[in-house]
Every structure is written in structure tokens, then in C-alpha cells.
Amino acid sequence: MANLTTLAVDYGASSGRHVAGSFDGKQLELREIYRFENGPVHAAGRMYWNLLDQWTQLQNGLTLARQQLGPQIASIGVDTWGVDFALLGRGDELLGNPVHYRDRRTEGMLDAATQRVSRADIFANSGVQFMPINTLYQLLAMQAQNSPILEAAESFLMMPDVFHWLLSGVKGNEYSDATTTQFFDPQKHAWSTELFSRFGLPAKILQPIIEPGTILGPLRKSVTAATGLNDTRVIVPGTHDTASAVLAVPAQSVPGKKPDWCYISSGTWSLMGVELPQPVVTPRCLELNFTNEGGVGRTTRLLKNIGGLWLVQECRRIWKAAGKDHSWSELAELAAAAQPLQFIINPDDTDFLAPDDMPRAIQEYCKKSGQAVPETPGEIIRTALEGLALKYRQVLGWLEELAGSQLATIHIVGGGTNNKLLSQLTADATQRRVVAGPVEATAIGNLLMQYIALGEIASIRDAREIVRASFPVEEFTPREGGAWDAAFAKFVALPG
Fold first, then answer.
1. Helices marked H in 338-459
2. What backbone phi and psi angles, to 5 degrees, belong to 7?
3. What pLDDT digit, counting tens, does each position of 220-259 carry?
4. What is the dihedral of CA 443, 187, 404, 431, to 10 degrees?
5. Active site residue 161
6. Cα–Cα distances in Å, from 358 out to 150, 174, 236, 382, 491?
7. Catalytic residue among 84, 103, 161, 241
8. Which of 187, 297, 325, 457 is 20 to 30 A removed from 283 (C-alpha atoms)?
């Protein structure tokens, strides 16, 4: 068959890129077309996303794709991070800039919400872990502040829904991203309008649920005119980036059997979980604060959000601002040379959510927990990476309990696979085989879902076979784990 070209637009919390896929029926080849910076804009005490610049960058990438690949790109799909959204008013007027999930407006809202509706009821109607950044608490913050934007809103669109609407003119809420809001019922596979109404939120703004693989239609004429693309269709992938990344996990599953593997989608956040046919909405799942998010093919991603490489990224940013511009490879070398397991932190502690100075936050955490303090960049980075590996070990045990099966292999996908030290530390801490790769998992999963929608790939299982045939992976075997057992005992004893 002739190669068929599709285009994935992948927005991350710090950057975005356009990646073209070329599929010949057996292998998928990638070509990065465009990469751009993304991040928050601070204005008048609020932290926003620059939506109009994001849209401009999306169109710039489409224009470059047409110039490099020609006008006959079969389809395009967009994925982003979860929880954030925009609101449209009468006549589809955009109401303000979307607010960044790290904005402080949600402080105290989780506790305020559970005073109105119990944690048990919220979880029973959503199956989602409790995090202050969740969409529910963002909307409740707007409600508490008597937001005129919320009052005027007629349409609620998650971030990838916004871009698909701008591309195609079709409004809807894609399934995998909708499940991150904490007001989508995974057992009913529908919005939890009852929960929404109990909080006094306007259910009229919620849009119809769109499944991954839905073909929305052609590009708007204005987009075609601006970019030069012809006959390009807009196809909805798993729009939450983790849903797309999990589709690209090169795992082999036996139908009808419990999973024997788990995944870590590693980037700014680490999302660690298993793929299941049904959600796990149980008291124990609530107690452990796990989340049931939607996957492609009506699967459930039972997972936990972990602080991720955000800690390392912020350390590098702070040092660069102080005139010490360490490269990523240099930081990895410094960390590898530092003494192991000297300092223990929990990367999910609230101290690390949005500190002004991440290196100092790590040092102060160690000090207040009665430990010695890491001083050098190598010690600080190794402390962050070992903290992640120890958290992975803890979450692995909980996943095995909730899934009811032993998970022999950990698949790490995403940009974090470039950090080989973290992959080895994960194998050592968990005493499990670690398979790292592919790096571009989110873009790959986005592209594969488009090919499934176009009828070029028959199933998710076939898509994963294509991943195994197309992209290299690296395996890490665990080394002696006695020191990690002692470190883990200290980890679980940390306060909070």
C-alpha cells in the first residue's frame, strides 16, 4: 500500500510539537515538523495559558507540514495535558484565557467541596483521585469568586476540544480527557450531571461525549485557506496525552487474562497505572487515592499521578536563572556520580507542587524531616530521581493489590525515557524488569488512533505490534535491592 501521512499535534505543559506519521502497512515512521515553546503567562496575579498563541503555533505547524509534505495530509489530531478548559459564551464567543492548573485559585477548594459533598460520593460518581488541580475545583473556585465568565458560559471545552473546535467547527468533549475532570461517571460512561448539579454548577455547558477515533470532518475553510492543506480530516485521538501514550506501550497482552505489566508515562508528571477493561470504584481505591481515567477502546487507565520530572526541570530552571546552565546530560552525570540513597523525599509532597525555588524546597524538606541536607546539584538531582523511584515502588504495590495480579514488567514511555539513570533506579527500587521506550509515545499513540479511524489498522492490539516493529526500546534489569529495602522503609515513614 502507498504510505499514508497523518499529523499529530502534541501540546505539553512546557512545549508543543507537530509530528508527521508515515505508515506503509507494517511500520510507522515519524518526522518532527515543528516544535514550539509552551507555558504559563502570569498576569494580574493569575496564571493563564496563552490560547491565541497556542492556536497560532498550531497553524504555523500546519503550514510547515504542507510545505514539507505537500497538501495531501490525510488527517490531523490534537492531544494535550488534562484538567484545563475554556468556556464559550453566546455565539461561541471565547470567554477569557484558560487558567493554568498550577494557578493558586484552587487553594482550599478541595476541602470546601468535600464539606458540601462527601469524598465517598464524589468518588462514587467520578472514580477520580482527589487533586486540587482537578477541573471540578477550578470550576468551584470560579463559582466561589462569582466569576462573570462562568455565569455567561454556554459551552465547556477541555483544551484539546478547543483546538478540535477551532480546526473543524465541531464542539464536543472527548472521552479520555473528560474523565480527568472529576465529574464524569466511568461506570455509566457519561457526565455525572447529578454530581455537577449538587455543586450548583450549570450542567447545560457540558457537551456530548466524543469517542477516540471519531472523525469530526474536514478543516474549516478558514484553516484550509491559512495553511494550504486540502482534504485533511480532523480525527479525535485519545486527547488526554496519557491516553495516547498508553496506546503506544509496546506490551503484549493476552485477551481475557489479567495484566502482567504496568506503565509509567514519564514527563513533567509521571502517570503510573494499568490498563483494565472496567473501572475500579471501590473503598480501597478511594483510600489509596487512585484514579480511573478513560483509555482508547473503552478501556480504563487505573493510575496515580506522581510529581514526575517537574522536580528536575524546576531545579535546572532555577540554576539557569542564577547563571549555572547545566545541560540535561550534565545533570544526569552529576547525579550518577553522587552517593546513592543518602536523602529521601516524597516527590508528591505539597512542598514540591509549585515552589519558588525547587532546589531549596528539596533541601528544606530534608531538613524538616530530620535528615542531612543535599548540597551539590548532583546530590539534589539524585535525591529527586531516587524519590521518584521509591514512589514508583509504592504505587506498584498498590496497583498489584487493586488489579489483583503481579506486574512483572514496567513499561516507561515518553520523554522521561531519555533519563537512563531514572530507568535503572526504577528497576532497582521495584526489583522489576523495566522496558523504556518509545520516547515519542504520545505522538505515536495519537497517530495510531488516526490510522485506526481511517481503517488502516484493525485494532489496538495490532497497533501495539506496529509499535514493537517500528521503534527501539531499552531494557533495564534490577540490581541488588537490599539498600532499597531500607530506603523504602524510611520513605513510607516520611511525614504526610
1. 358-368, 377-403, 420-430, 441-453
2. -135, 125
3. 999 999 999 999 999 999 999 999 999 999 998 766 678 8
4. 30
5. no
6. 34, 34, 37, 14, 20
7. 241
8. 297
